[in-house]
């Protein structure tokens, strides 16, 4: 082995150094020990070998065409290699690797194109008398080039505008009169109106013939004027020649930055090229930003690239994830006015890279070094805050992420800096003189609900809070970082309670290192979640598909995305969009159809026929759009032919067919669907993992966008509500579902020669569930496929009914509540599918979902109804005999500030504060179990740990009747009948009342040692058994011994597992993560084992 | 066949008078480091105390050895090598050495959290190896400050096992990783002087057996145990009875019963105990026994296992369990350290090696460059040698080998090296004379599982030589 | 004495249909192992001319310390002839009337029949003889 490791060159080197006897002398002792397990010292090079160096991929694949100087790429990679080679050189003060690579000295507008991915856009004004095309207003695009240079691009010369219809009178056609009107306006608006142009446009709203009409395009010098100008037109304030005295509709109400993006063809997160010679670099002394390249360019000169093909890659965006630790007072959640920030951990990675390239932690007071990370210790908190701000400016992240950073970490830092009077702290955006401010916002949306949040302006840096991302995109029982990590990353996380943090801080540099390691983990997890959930990739593709800036995706609802797409499509066909009044309307329309379910347990295959993208396909098939909507009068005036030139929808609305005019919405939908097909096809052929992620994000974004178009039309509080479209869509949907049901039942009947009569057992919105009657799954699938194809022929293209899956067996409980074994091929089922059941209700204990899933598994997978019933009985028995692990009985609720009525968790919080001196705070989740007794329910909520420590009795009846009974009965009643299902619980409930009760007298009973065998009292001095049981001593000892053995193993396994999770063998496990499945188990086993040992000592 | 029978049985010698068995001197007054009374147990602490005790104990020993090996002035490629007091003090671009505990993160280690989440807790443990064949497992060096990932080719050629405390020489290769160039074990510990008697006439021996795995439902097993009884009583081979009387004691190294509480009915253990009781009742009339519990015996699940309790056996046998009769039946712990005729022996029922084996079982498969294919026996003897070198006979406790949570103590840490190291319940018999650091010599003996091999090991107390007697069916 | 032994073997083997081990003779008739082995052989010779339905189980002792039980005698005859240079002893361990050989062990006071005696004597504590006093009154709790 040793010979193989020798490097011939090294041997020669040693020979050349032959005179160095000292070295030889030092090396010799090592090779004396030839026994097993100790190899001679290796002579290999002490530098990292290939397999241990950092990953070199930066995650983005820049095409050659993207680069206009291969020298730059080469320089960048060389710099990066040097960084990686020295990565392990974590000198305390060496931060040279933080900054971006330096611009080439010869960089100039005359010689270099600039292509950058823009990540954010905002409106601004250039000062100093700058004017381009009579306007000083610019849109700022922040971005990054392929090489990694940061860019601030001021797009100049673009004037905001609106449209109004040209007045009907003859004098309105006179250019001189128009000029006078312009002057009239400018007297009111201080010469802010730049010009009026006459253009031929058509309105998106309604069809009334094919002609375009003259519109006046009114351009303004200052975008802020546009709203006042619009109001004047709409309310009839302009009395000049009585043209607009009655008020007129204005068109194209859109924000200035989005207006520019639409007109220039710029979508969110797309690439822009600035041709050399066309832009002007701003010298360093005049820069407003910290970007390496700050420049101006006229909007006509920039080249906007569609985000496809070569321009679909991501720039090397820098992503910063950080976490702060605060020292709190006993029993008080940290407050920035009082409690210091003691540590800030930072991890910086490049988008697509496998590992971060910066890992550091800022601390107050000394902290021992951490291998693989940098530690910056400070004597004072103020110094740390200043240093951290400097770090942000130097690392210059494009994206700032974290977990709850929007509502906690960032506001806390800013408020803490204010309390300490660190005046320069809140200036860490990319604009040097713009201060970060905290604003409270309330976001309300039908899709996402209502959430209060804070908003902080960090210009030029995207913010992505993983907590908000998870809340928006996923439905989970809990959104703690522990729960989310466990769910998506498959790993538990040690959770240190905030009360312990202060003790670690007040220890020494070793304990502060312990805290710092923990803090670094918390900073690293959001980065891993972002990668795992593909948050950045998916949101980037959504921004590209819909055309909105990235920042809109977190702060705005769905409507802005459809608005953006509408405007982009309309500009191509000379169409303008009226500014509708946003008024809440009481008008309602009929929704989707639900075919009444034939409830029961089906032990035969149930085929599911699904319409593919039903609402989008209805809109496309019947050409439903703003532009195709007409009415009876128009139809008669133009002498249109029914069903050829126009259709009447089932609810009575008129739409012209595509023969007359193709609607914009159908065109948008068609393009989205085709783009998705292309993306999926490209995805199939793509090998590069990161590229595959991008394509997958793209196709998902396209799917979501297509589905949101229908919702846009039906939003009564919306930008462009049109109930005629949405109600027509649903009326077609209802008609189609019923038609499908009848067609299937008519065709697949004994009368037509089939073996069985088909029965539609359920239907909802866009799917129909059919029992064909056959027991053979393969045959049922074949019939389903055939039926879907047949029904599809009854409808217009592209409406398509597909056979997608069969349920076998199938448990149909009620509308929108069912479960079944899901098959897409006859050989193996895909999964157990369920809808509307209580499995994920957050106010149940986890036992409910555990039992429900188990019962469903036994019924549907094992086909063992009796086994399921036995399991239910056993569970009931376990509950009655207190054999259920307490973690399964925990109910969890968030503590709100005020309650009208007493709530169990609120009462418990008060009790804990009185009892322990501290307890949950507002906003914390409170875990509790319901204990026995005759008190009111809200007084019987108790902390699970307290229950375990004090052997308090659980209220079994509560868990049976209030938690478990209804969900379980809803599953088994369709199988065995309502009466029998209820009896399983009722009988037991009677028995409960005869159970043991805790009376006050029990407290006075003297504790007497009892016989291990028969529980009878023992006389003083007797061993563990009474005289009668002595003969059974062997048998009884064995039983006691094996209880001990089981507990010993359980104890050892639980606590070693906790050590592994904590990532340390030598330190105490401090975890207080109650979400973990074994947290309460380990508390309980410790207690039980101690008790059993004391009993064993009596043998 | 008839001729053979005639040859031996026609003119058989007369029976000699009853011979009294040789007396060997075992010390009984020594304090047993592995004793653990029920009433003294405390489960309020966690396992980190044991690791702290190990690190404190071994750090001093390893440090002495490291200073000898890599003393001041030692250089690697022109760079001075420095000592790092703590693991997280390791910095880049600087060759250094550091002392810490090895921790292995392995894919197939038992994971109760996973079992609870997947609702498979309580299912039988079928894992034969913890190792991930795809090589995703990680080896780390840890102390109270934190841990670093160990990398390099060196760690593939040397067993790195969770719980061992070593010194490693190398350099930070990548952020948070340490490339290992050399390794250092604890400095030598004392061994009591061994003076074997020169009187060759008195050939005292002890018999070592393990893995009886008594199971009344297995006739073959019962027959084998009965033959063992007859052999020890001197009835099978009359010609060597005088030799057999030199066997002064039988040491049963665990797993006397084969009992899995989850699969067998409650009556099975009672039957096994009854059968074992008969064996004891008969054999004790002829030879003294020291009885160790093993993994399958009705004793603790955690190490160290405490002696079997008299309540397990019938009334007639209970007198043997009295303290005053421990010369006849000595109920001992697992592990068990004892002194016979001045020879220090350390015996363990084999759980330690069987667990460590799961950490390295695939190393030979992975090492395609291996020119010598070691047998499993050689491999296990290597591991036994390693535990002596590590000076910890159960390093993987408590991580994967369940153990009692000692506070400020670890009984598996050796303060003295024994003369003989006995490991029971192994697949094969094996023996090796090892020479450790400083020239210390120790005899390693691998005791085979009797129920599958029929092997009984005889250890000569004068020469420390071993011989294997095999009972075949 | 030989007749008594043969009669005992007959009774157990034919009437009770149970296996007979040479150790049974040791404990029943207080024989030494050598004598017991001889007696087994005598019985074997005595019955070899009769049509008796039972199997012989042989015990072979080898020079290297191996002790081997053989029961498939027909197939093993040639093999044993080849081995005999290594044999140090060979005797009949048991007569088995059944298909399967299931030995039954039992605790027997054997002090008079021991080949090798344990030098330590079992001490009996008088405390063990004291039985717990029966309680005069039991609790009615149960």
Automatic annotation (TrEMBL), chain A:
Assigned GO CC terms: chromosome, telomeric repeat region; delta DNA polymerase complex
Cofactor(s) in the UniProt record: [4Fe-4S] cluster
Q: What is its main location?
A: nucleus
| C4-type zinc-finger of DNA polymerase delta domain ranges (all copies) | 1011-1082
**Membrane-spanning residues where?**
none
Q: Keywords in alphabetical order, please.
A: 4Fe-4S, DNA replication, DNA-binding, DNA-directed DNA polymerase, Exonuclease, Hydrolase, Iron, Iron-sulfur, Metal-binding, Nuclease, Nucleotidyltransferase, Nucleus, Transferase, Zinc, Zinc-finger
| Protein EC | 2.7.7.7
Provide the reaction this enzyme catalyses: DNA(n) + a 2'-deoxyribonucleoside 5'-triphosphate = DNA(n+1) + diphosphate
Q: Where is this region: Disordered?
A: 1-40
> InterPro entries annotated for this entry?
DNA-dir_DNA_pol_B, DNA-dir_DNA_pol_B_CS, DNA-dir_DNA_pol_B_exonuc, DNA-dir_DNA_pol_B_multi_dom, DNA/RNA_pol_sf, DNA_pol_B_thumb, DNA_pol_palm_dom_sf, DNA_pol_type-B
Query: Which residue ranges does the record assign to the DNA-directed DNA polymerase family B exonuclease domain?
Result: 250-484
Identify the residues that the record assigns to the DNA-directed DNA polymerase family B multifunctional domain, covering every copy: 548-975
Localization in the cell: Nucleus
Gene Ontology molecular functions: 3'-5'-DNA exonuclease activity; 4 iron, 4 sulfur cluster binding; DNA binding; DNA-directed DNA polymerase activity; molecular adaptor activity; nucleotide binding; zinc ion binding
The family database entries (Pfam families) matched by this protein are listed as:
DNA_pol_B, DNA_pol_B_exo1, zf-C4pol
Gene Ontology biological process terms from the UniProt entry? base-excision repair, gap-filling; DNA replication proofreading; DNA replication, removal of RNA primer; DNA synthesis involved in UV-damage excision repair; double-strand break repair via nonhomologous end joining; mitotic DNA replication lagging strand elongation; nucleotide-excision repair, DNA gap filling; RNA-templated DNA biosynthetic process
What family, per the record?
Answer: Belongs to the DNA polymerase type-B family.
Q: What does this protein do?
A: Catalytic component of DNA polymerase delta (DNA polymerase III) which participates in chromosomal DNA replication. Required during synthesis of the lagging DNA strands at the replication fork, binds at/or near replication origins and moves along DNA with the replication fork. Participates in leading strand synthesis during replication initiation and termination. Has 3'-5' proofreading exonuclease activity that corrects errors arising during DNA replication.
What protein am I looking at? DNA polymerase
From TrEMBL, chain B:
Output the Gene3D superfamilies linked to this UniProt entry: 2.40.50.430, 3.60.21.50
Q: Which InterPro entries is this protein grouped with?
A: DNA_pol_a/d/e_bsu, DNA_pol_D_N, DNA_pol_delta/II_ssu, PolD2_C
Query: What residues does the DNA polymerase delta subunit OB-fold domain cover?
Result: 46-183
Q: Does the keyword Nucleotidyltransferase apply?
A: yes
EC annotation? 2.7.7.7
Spell out the subcellular localization from the entry: Nucleus
Keywords assigned by UniProt, alphabetized: DNA replication, DNA-directed DNA polymerase, Nucleotidyltransferase, Nucleus, Transferase
Catalytic activity field: DNA(n) + a 2'-deoxyribonucleoside 5'-triphosphate = DNA(n+1) + diphosphate
Span of domain DNA polymerase alpha/delta/epsilon subunit B: 206-431
Recorded GO cellular component terms are: cytosol; delta DNA polymerase complex; zeta DNA polymerase complex
Gene Ontology BP term (one): DNA replication, removal of RNA primer
Citing just one GO molecular function, the answer is:
DNA binding
Q: Which family does it belong to?
A: Belongs to the DNA polymerase delta/II small subunit family.
According to UniProt, the name of this protein is: DNA-directed DNA polymerase
Q: What is the organism of origin for this protein?
A: Naumovozyma castellii (Yeast)
Query: What lineage does UniProt assign to this protein's organism?
Result: Eukaryota, Fungi, Dikarya, Ascomycota, Saccharomycotina
């Amino acid at each position: 082995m040793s010979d193989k490791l020798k490097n011939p060159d090294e041997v020669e080197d040693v020979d050349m150094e032959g005179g160095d006897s000292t070295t030889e002398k030092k090396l010799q002792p090592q090779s004396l020990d030839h026994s097993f397990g100790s190899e001679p010292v290796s002579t290999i090079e002490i530098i990292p070998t290939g397999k241990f160096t950092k990953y070199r991929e930066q995650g983005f694949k820049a095409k050659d065409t993207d680069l206009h100087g291969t020298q730059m790429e080469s320089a960048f990679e060389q710099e990066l290699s040097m960084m990686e080679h020295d990565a392990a050189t974590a000198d305390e003060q060496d931060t040279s690797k933080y900054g971006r690579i330096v611009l080439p000295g010869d960089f100039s507008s005359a010689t270099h194109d600039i292509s950058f991915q823009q990540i954010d856009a905002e409106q601004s004004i250039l000062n100093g008398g700058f004017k381009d095309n009579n306007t000083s207003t610019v849109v700022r695009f922040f971005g990054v080039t392929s090489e990694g240079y940061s860019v601030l691009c001021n797009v100049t010369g673009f004037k905001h505008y609106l449209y109004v219809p040209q007045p009907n009178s003859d004098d309105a056609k006179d250019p001189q009169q128009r000029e006078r009107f312009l002057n009239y306006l400018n007297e009111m608006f201080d010469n802010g109106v730049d010009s009026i142009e006459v253009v031929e446009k058509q309105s998106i709203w309604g069809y009334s013939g094919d002609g375009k009409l003259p519109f006046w395009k009114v351009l303004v010098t200052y975008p802020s004027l546009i709203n006042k100008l619009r109001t004047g037109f709409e309310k009839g304030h302009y009395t000049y020649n009585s043209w607009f005295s009655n008020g007129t509709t204005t068109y194209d109400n859109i924000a200035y930055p989005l207006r520019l993006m639409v007109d220039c063809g710029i979508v969110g997160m797309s690439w822009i090229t600035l041709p050399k010679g066309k832009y002007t670099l701003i010298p360093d002394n005049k820069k407003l930003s910290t970007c390496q390249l700050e420049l101006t360019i006229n909007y006509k000169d920039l080249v906007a690239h569609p985000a496809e093909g070569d321009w679909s890659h991501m720039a090397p965006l820098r992503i910063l994830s950080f976490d702060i630790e605060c020292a709190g007072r006993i029993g008080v959640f940290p407050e920035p006015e009082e409690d210091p920030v003691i540590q800030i951990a930072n991890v910086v990675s490049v988008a697509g890279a496998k590992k971060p390239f910066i890992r550091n932690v800022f601390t107050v007071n000394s902290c021992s070094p951490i291998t693989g990370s940098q530690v910056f210790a400070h004597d004072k908190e103020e110094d740390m805050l200043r240093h951290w701000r400097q770090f942000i400016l130097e690392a210059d992240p494009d994206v700032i992420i974290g977990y709850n950073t929007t509502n906690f970490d960032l506001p806390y830092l800013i408020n803490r800096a204010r309390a300490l009077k660190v005046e320069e702290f809140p200036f860490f955006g990319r604009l040097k003189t713009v201060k970060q401010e905290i604003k409270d916002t309330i976001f309300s949306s039908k899709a996402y609900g209502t959430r209060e949040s804070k908003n902080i302006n960090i210009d030029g840096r995207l913010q992505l809070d993983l907590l908000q991302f998870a809340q928006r995109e996923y439905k989970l029982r809990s959104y703690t970082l522990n729960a989310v990590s466990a769910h998506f990353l498959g790993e538990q996380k040690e959770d240190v309670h905030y009360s312990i943090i202060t003790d670690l801080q007040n220890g020494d540099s070793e304990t502060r290192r312990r805290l710092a390691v923990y803090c670094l983990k918390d900073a690293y997890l959001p980065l891993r979640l972002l990668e795992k959930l593909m948050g950045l990739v998916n949101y980037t593709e959504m921004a590209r598909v819909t055309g909105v800036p990235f920042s809109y995706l977190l702060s705005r609802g769905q409507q802005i995305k459809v608005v953006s797409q509408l405007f982009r499509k309309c500009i191509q066909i000379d169409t303008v969009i009226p500014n509708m009044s946003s008024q809440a309307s009481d008008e309602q329309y009929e929704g989707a159809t639900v075919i009444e379910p034939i409830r029961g347990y089906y032990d035969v295959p149930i085929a599911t026929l699904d319409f593919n993208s039903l609402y989008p396909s209805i809109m496309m098939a019947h050409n439903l759009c703003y532009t195709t909507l007409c009415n009876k009068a128009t139809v008669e005036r133009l002498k249109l032919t029914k069903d050829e030139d126009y259709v009447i929808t089932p609810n009575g609305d008129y739409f012209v067919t595509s023969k007359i005019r193709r609607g914009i919405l159908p065109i948008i939908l068609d393009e989205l669907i085709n783009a998705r097909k292309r993306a999926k096809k490209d995805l199939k052929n793509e090998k590069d993992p990161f590229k595959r992620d991008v394509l997958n994000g793209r196709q998902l974004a396209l799917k979501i966008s297509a589905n949101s178009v229908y919702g846009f039309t039906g939003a009564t509080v919306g930008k462009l509500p049109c109930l005629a479209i949405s109600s027509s869509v649903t009326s077609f949907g209802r008609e189609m579902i019923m038609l499908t049901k009848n067609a299937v039942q008519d065709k697949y009947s004994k009368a037509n020669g089939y073996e069985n009569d088909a029965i539609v057992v359920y239907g909802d919105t866009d799917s129909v569930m059919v029992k064909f009657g056959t027991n053979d799954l393969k045959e049922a699938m074949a019939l389903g496929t055939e039926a879907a194809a047949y029904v599809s022929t009854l409808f217009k293209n592209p409406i398509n009914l597909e056979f997608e899956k069969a349920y076998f067996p199938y448990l149909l409980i009620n509308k929108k509540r069912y479960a079944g074994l899901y098959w897409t091929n006859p050989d193996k089922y895909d999964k157990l599918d369920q809808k509307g059941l209580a499995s994920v209700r957050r106010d149940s204990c986890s036992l409910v979902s555990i039992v429900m899933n188990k019962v469903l598994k036994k019924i549907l997978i094992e086909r063992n109804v009796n086994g399921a019933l036995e399991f239910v009985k056993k569970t009931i028995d376990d509950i009655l005999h207190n054999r259920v692990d307490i973690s399964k009985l925990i109910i969890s609720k968030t503590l709100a500030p005020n309650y009208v009525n007493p709530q169990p968790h609120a009462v418990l919080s008060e009790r804990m504060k009185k009892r322990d001196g501290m307890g949950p705070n507002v906003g914390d989740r409170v875990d509790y179990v319901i204990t026995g007794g005759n008190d009111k329910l809200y007084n019987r909520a108790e902390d699970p740990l307290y229950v375990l420590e004090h052997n308090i009795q659980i209220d079994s009846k509560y868990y049976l009747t209030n938690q478990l009974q209804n969900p379980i009965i809803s599953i088994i009643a369709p199988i065995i009948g309502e009466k029998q299902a209820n009896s399983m619980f009722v009988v037991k409930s009677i028995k409960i009342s005869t159970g043991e009760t805790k009376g006050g007298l029990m407290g006075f009973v003297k504790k007497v040692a009892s016989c291990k065998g028969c529980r009878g009292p023992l006389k003083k001095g007797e061993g563990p058994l009474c005289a009668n049981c002595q003969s059974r001593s062997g048998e009884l000892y064995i039983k006691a011994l094996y209880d001990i053995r089981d507990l010993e193993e359980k104890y050892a396994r639980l606590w070693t597992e906790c050590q592994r999770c904590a990532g340390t063998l030598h330190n105490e496990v401090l975890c207080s993560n109650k979400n973990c499945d074994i947290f309460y188990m380990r508390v309980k086993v410790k207690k039980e084992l101690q008790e059993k040992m004391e009993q064993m000592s009596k043998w | 066949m008839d001729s053979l029978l005639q040859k031996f049985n026609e003119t058989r010698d007369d029976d000699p008078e009853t011979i009294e068995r040789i007396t060997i001197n075992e010390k009984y007054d020594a304090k047993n480091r592995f004793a653990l009374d029920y009433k003294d147990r405390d489960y309020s602490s966690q396992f980190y105390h044991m690791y702290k005790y190990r690190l404190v104990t071994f750090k001093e020993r390893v440090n002495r050895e490291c200073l000898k090996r890599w003393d001041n002035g030692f250089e690697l490629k022109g760079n001075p090598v420095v000592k790092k007091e703590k693991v997280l003090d390791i910095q880049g671009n600087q060759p250094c050495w550091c002392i810490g505990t090895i921790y292995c993160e392995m894919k197939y280690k038992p994971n109760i959290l996973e079992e609870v989440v997947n609702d498979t807790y309580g299912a039988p443990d079928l894992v034969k190896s913890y190792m991930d064949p795809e090589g995703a497992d990680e080896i780390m060096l840890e102390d109270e400050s934190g841990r670093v990932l160990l990398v390099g080719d060196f760690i593939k050629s040397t067993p790195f096992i969770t719980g061992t405390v070593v010194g490693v020489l190398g350099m930070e290769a990548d952020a948070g990783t340490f490339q290992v160039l050399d390794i250092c074990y604890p400095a030598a510990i004392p061994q009591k002087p061994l003076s074997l008697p020169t009187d060759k006439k008195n050939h005292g021996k002890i018999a070592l057996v393990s893995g009886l795995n008594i199971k009344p439902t297995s006739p073959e097993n019962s027959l084998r145990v009965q033959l063992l009884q007859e052999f020890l009583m001197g009835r099978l081979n009359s010609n060597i009875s005088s030799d057999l009387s030199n066997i002064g004691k039988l040491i049963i190294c665990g797993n006397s019963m084969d009992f899995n509480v989850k699969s067998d009915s409650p009556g099975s253990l009672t039957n096994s105990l009854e059968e074992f009781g008969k064996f004891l009742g008969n054999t004790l009339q002829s030879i003294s026994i020291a009885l160790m519990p093993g993994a399958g015996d009705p004793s603790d699940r955690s190490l160290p296992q405490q002696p079997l309790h008299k309540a397990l056996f019938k009334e007639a046998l209970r007198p043997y369990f009295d303290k005053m009769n421990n010369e006849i039946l000595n109920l001992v712990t697992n592990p068990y350290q004892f002194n016979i005729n001045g020879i220090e022996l350390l015996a363990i029922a084999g759980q330690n090696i069987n667990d460590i084996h799961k950490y390295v079982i695939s190393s030979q498969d992975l090492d395609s460059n291996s020119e010598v294919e070691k047998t499993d026996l050689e491999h296990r003897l290597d591991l036994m040698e390693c535990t002596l070198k590590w000076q910890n006979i159960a390093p993987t406790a408590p991580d994967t080998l369940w153990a009692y949570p000692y506070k400020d103590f670890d009984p598996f840490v050796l303060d003295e090296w024994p003369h003989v190291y006995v490991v029971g319940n192994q697949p094969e018999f094996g023996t090796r004379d090892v020479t450790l650091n400083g020239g210390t010599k120790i005899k390693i003996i691998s005791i085979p599982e009797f129920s599958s091999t029929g092997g009984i090991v005889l250890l000569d107390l004068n020469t420390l030589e071993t011989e294997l007697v095999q009972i075949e069916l | 004495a030989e007749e008594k032994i043969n009669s005992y073997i007959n009774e157990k083997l034919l009437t009770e249909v149970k296996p007979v081990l040479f150790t049974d003779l040791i404990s029943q008739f207080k024989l030494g192992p050598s004598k017991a082995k001889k007696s087994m052989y005598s019985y074997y010779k005595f019955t070899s001319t009769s049509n008796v339905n039972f199997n012989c189980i042989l015990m072979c002792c080898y020079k290297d310390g191996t002790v081997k039980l053989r029961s498939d005698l027909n197939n093993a005859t040639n093999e044993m002839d080849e081995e005999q240079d290594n044999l140090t002893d060979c005797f009949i361990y048991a007569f088995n009337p059944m298909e399967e050989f299931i030995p039954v062990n039992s605790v027997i006071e054997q002090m008079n029949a021991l080949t090798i005696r344990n030098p330590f004597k079992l001490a009996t504590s008088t405390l063990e003889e004291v039985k717990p006093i029966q309680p005069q009154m039991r609790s009615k709790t149960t």
